[in-house]
User: Which sequence fits this backbone?
């Protein structure tokens, strides 16, 4: 590099001698021509050697050059002896007091290489851009431009994972405007333009030490070296203002949250090992990690050991998992260590200790509501429904180990009624779920513990908990037994299926006003009615205007809630 700078400064000095009356421009040169025949080149300016043996993926610092005069830049093989050996020549004129970057790009003979998918010309050229910065505009940020310099790569987008899109629809030879980001570490995902669901490659960009600096980030090399004379493979590189070139290392990372929901008293606290190394020490029942970055596209051996473990040799259970790059997962430790010592699952589900691994998890909501997934993690509980007062039936017939799809509810406070899936007239438990303040967030709500602790080694009793993306676990208040005897069904609602009328047999221990609400399968309120109820009564409900389908019925006042399902036929 010292030799290169010597020649460049010497040449600049010669030129300045001839043009002392002109203000100077500043120029940084980057060698990004992946053609193996140009792995090292000599650069001549106005016939004089400026850069000797200028290597692929190297850069100069900003050098002062004459402005407002024609500069003839010639590129020659690295072993050249004079300007007469140049392979290509470019004439450029730089404006006074302006700062430029010139990026050598393309291939010497395009016919000998794969064509560009977008039909762009891949002949050897200089990509010249003005208004270049040698420092960031803000002292705590990094300012950079992006250059698409991979001849056989299609139009791409670049996203800073879990942060923001950075580059949109950049084709070969495109140079972006400046992008300013806080000086932090990022994972950059390169995707086809217009299809961010498919990731071509991922890279780590650690910018933590570059606050106040600037860079030219350039895509370099070939997506398919075998079709391009076995040239260098695709990568991302950053040229700094001082001429240093940094490789952004390729990476494959997933996001993972781990939740401990194994109610076996012997697993009250556990140590978790990953590939032989202690990852989580003394991990307590009903606690969670935040979402963290973990290696993807490799086998991860996850071992669960007692909290007193001294090494991976103490693990009780081991699981092998492979996570996909850029995917987001939850791993929920659940079940019991010895199923024979605990109550069997009523639906004959396997209750052995395991990891429920779920992909497509969310760290935030898609909108302003709260996005929730529910996990049935109670080994001795049957299939259940969950009714949220004001939001309808949110979980339908979930058996142990089931994980629901996401559903969204406004950030508010709800009473959740847990009922057997086949008998909505019986409330197993009632919980107050306060979601105020969680708008725009996401949560994993998990049923936990045992319905009958005495039959399960006196383990933890049944409860509902919510794990937030930051690792906080919130317990929902158990309202079971509070006012539930105030109202009850005296029989099943009938006729079921119904055509135009539905009869609701009810009994209240005191005179009170109750609401009757009907929800469709999507949770939308389709019918509401208020009633005065004292003693035993049969309430007639007109369902003649409802379309054929399955509906949920909720009768309640305050915390006294009843629910059943019914069908309308036409």
Assistant:
């Amino acid at each position: 590099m010292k030799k290169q700078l010597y020649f460049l400064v010497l040449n600049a000095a010669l030129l300045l001698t001839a043009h002392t009356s002109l203000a100077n421009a500043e120029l940084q040169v980057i060698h990004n021509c992946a053609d193996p025949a140009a792995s090292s080149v000599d650069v001549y300016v106005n016939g004089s050697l400026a850069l000797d043996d200028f290597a692929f993926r190297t850069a100069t610092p900003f050098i002062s050059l004459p402005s407002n005069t024609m500069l003839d830049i010639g590129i020659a093989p690295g072993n050249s002896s004079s300007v007469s050996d140049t392979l290509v020549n470019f004439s450029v004129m730089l404006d006074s007091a302006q700062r430029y970057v010139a990026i050598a790009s393309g291939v010497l003979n395009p016919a000998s290489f794969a064509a560009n998918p977008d039909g762009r010309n891949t002949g050897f050229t200089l990509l010249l851009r003005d208004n270049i910065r040698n420092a960031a505009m803000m002292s705590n940020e990094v300012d950079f431009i992006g250059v698409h310099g991979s001849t056989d790569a299609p139009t791409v987008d670049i996203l800073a994972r879990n942060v923001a899109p950075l580059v949109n629809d950049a084709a070969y030879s495109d140079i972006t405007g400046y992008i300013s980001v806080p000086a932090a570490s990022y994972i950059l995902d390169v995707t086809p333009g217009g299809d961010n669901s498919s990731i071509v490659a991922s890279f780590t960009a650690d910018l933590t030490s570059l606050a106040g600096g600037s860079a030219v980030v350039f895509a370099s090399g070939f997506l398919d070296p075998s079709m391009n004379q076995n040239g260098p493979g695709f990568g991302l590189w950053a040229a700094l203002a001082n001429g240093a070139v940094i490789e952004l290392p390729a990476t494959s990372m997933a996001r993972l949250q781990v939740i401990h929901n194994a109610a076996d008293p012997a697993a009250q606290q556990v140590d978790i090992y990953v590939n032989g190394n202690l990852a989580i020490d003394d991990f307590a029942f009903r606690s969670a990690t935040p979402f963290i970055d973990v290696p993807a596209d490799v086998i991860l051996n996850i071992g669960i050991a007692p909290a007193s473990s001294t090494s991976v040799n103490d693990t009780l259970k081991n699981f092998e998992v492979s996570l996909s790059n850029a995917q987001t997962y939850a791993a929920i430790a659940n079940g019991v260590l010895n199923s024979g010592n605990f109550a069997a699952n009523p639906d004959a589900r396997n209750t052995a200790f395991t990891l429920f691994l779920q992909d497509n998890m969310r760290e935030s909501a898609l909108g302003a509501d709260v996005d929730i997934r529910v996990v049935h993690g109670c080994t001795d509980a049957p299939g259940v429904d969950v009714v949220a007062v004001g939001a309808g039936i949110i979980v339908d017939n979930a058996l142990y180990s089931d994980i629901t799809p996401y559903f969204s509810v406004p950030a508010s406070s709800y009473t959740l009624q847990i009922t057997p899936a086949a008998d909505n007239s019986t409330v197993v438990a009632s919980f107050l779920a306060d979601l105020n303040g969680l708008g725009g967030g996401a949560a994993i709500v998990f049923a936990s513990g045992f319905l009958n602790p005495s039959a399960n080694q006196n383990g933890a009793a049944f409860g509902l908990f919510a794990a937030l993306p930051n690792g906080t676990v919130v317990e929902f208040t158990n309202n079971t037994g509070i006012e539930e005897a105030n109202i009850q069904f005296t029989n099943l609602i009938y006729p079921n299926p119904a055509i135009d009328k539905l009869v609701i047999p009810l009994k209240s221990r005191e005179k009170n006003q109750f609401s009757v609400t009907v929800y469709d399968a999507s949770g939308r309120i389709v019918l509401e009615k208020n009633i005065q109820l004292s003693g035993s009564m049969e309430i007639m409900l007109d369902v003649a205007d409802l379309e054929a389908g399955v509906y949920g019925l909720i009768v309640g006042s305050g915390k006294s809630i009843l629910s059943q399902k019914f069908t309308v036929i036409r």
Observations:
- The chain has five domains: 2-129, 141-248, 256-341, 370-478, 484-568.
- Residues 1-22, 481-485 have pLDDT under 50 and may be disordered.
